[in-house]
Amino acid sequence: MNMKFAIAPGAWGIEDPANPDNPEWTRVLDDAGKSGFKGVELGPYGYLPTDSVILQDELSSRSLKVVAGTIYDDLTGRENCDALLKKTHDICRLVSKVNNENDTIFLVIIDAVKDIRNNTAGHPELAVRLEPDGWKIMMENIIDISIIARNEYGVKPVVHPHAGGFIEFRDETEQLLNDIASDKVGLCLDTGHLYYAGDDPAASLIDFAERLEYVHFKDINPDVFEIAVKQRMGFFDACNRGVMCSIGRGSVDYKAVFNALDKLKYNEWITIEQERDPKLWKGALDDVKLSYDFLSKTAGEIQQ
User: Fold this and answer.
1) CB-based contact 228:241 (threshold 8 Å)
2) CATH number at residue 224
3) Which long-range contacts (CB under 8 A, 24 or more apart) does 223-227 make?
4) Which string of DSSP letters, residue by residue, matches 175-191?
């Protein structure tokens, strides 16, 4: 198994490109390169430069590649369709122009956190489920996004189950895969979100192997997670309180995860995330270094 680790701007708290608390994008790229990573995700569109020539120069100077872009938005309404498709074109046009040699580039598709689901993140038994008409619209929007990404730009579309959105829990992921064929869209599974949803991350990678295209790594601080679930804390509130920690210091069994990926002969990028309050971005460099070092060591042990 060839391990290729990338990092996402979310590790510095970047969720809204206009947030005045964000660090400069140059700092994020500098930190990514210093930490040993060879790839980065684009993050929210507009945070990194949207001029492909400028972006390519900045990446090349740090020996980095863009591995994915992300649509994080409300996927459940027809009124949002035009904006979704425009964003799809913008993101895919940019990532497809940035030189990544022969690597696959992904478009990660996420149904955004909803008020009605936010406080039941991690509670499959309590969460309000999307009614059938809304689900049908969401599936249509995902298909439209995926066709643009794959057919017009050669970008591989993957859906990312996410805490607080309407694709979060195992039954919702299974319904998604039942409704949309594998030639349209694959899965991006995130170990942290799987754990948050009450699933075993390593077992889930095996269970969904036929549709697994891309992987995100997170780790969960068990003490903060227990409080967050007990108090029905909103997902990003929990992130701001430190529910995400550096890889290897939380509850996710990464030896089991690596063994699962080794069994699957997974050879695509693995992107590390650690959502945080952007006001606390100065702690990101230490955390991402810890994560990279732990993962490199653990991967080496598995491959021996």
Assistant:
1) yes
2) 3.20.20.150
3) 225/122, 225/196, 225/251
4) HHHHHS-TTT-EEEEEH
The pLDDT value recorded for residue 83 is 96
Low-confidence ranges of the chain (pLDDT < 50): none
List of residues 6+ apart from 113 with CB closer than 8 A: 121, 162, 163, 164, 165, 234, 235, 236
Packed helices 25-34 and 284-303: angle between N→C axes, nearest 10 degrees: 30
Using the 8-state DSSP alphabet, how is residue 77 labeled? Answer: -
Cβ–Cβ < 8 Å for 77, 114: no
- Identify the pLDDT of residue 140: 98
Q: Check residue 11 and report its DSSP letter.
A: G
Q: What is the 3-state secondary structure (H, E, C) of 112-173?
A: CCCHHHHCCCCCCCCCCCCCHHHHHHHHHHHHHHHHHHHHHHCCEEEECCCCCCCCCCHHHH
Distance CA(158)–CA(109), nearest Å, equals 6
What's the total number of domains in the chain? 1
Contact criterion met (CB below 8 Å) for 3 and 254:
no
d(CA 169, CA 161): 7
Q: How many CB atoms lie within 10 A of CB 226?
A: 13
Specify which residues 39 forms β-bridges with. 6, 65
Q: Which of 16, 60, 20, 24 is nearest to 40 (CA)?
A: 60
Q: Residue 217 and residue 270: Cα distance in Å, rounded?
A: 7
Q: Are strands 39-41 and 186-190 parallel, antiparallel or unpaired?
A: unpaired
Q: Contacts by 204-210 with C-beta closer than 8 Å and gap 24+? A: 204/170, 205/257, 205/260, 205/261, 205/264, 206/260, 206/263, 206/264, 208/173, 208/177, 209/264, 210/182
CA distance linking residue 119 with residue 235, whole number of Å: 7
User: Which pLDDT belongs to residue 103?
Assistant: 82
Q: The domain containing residue 109 runs over which residues?
A: 4-303
pLDDT of residue 301: 76
| Among 119, 203, 117, 213, residue whose Cα is nearest residue 167 | 117
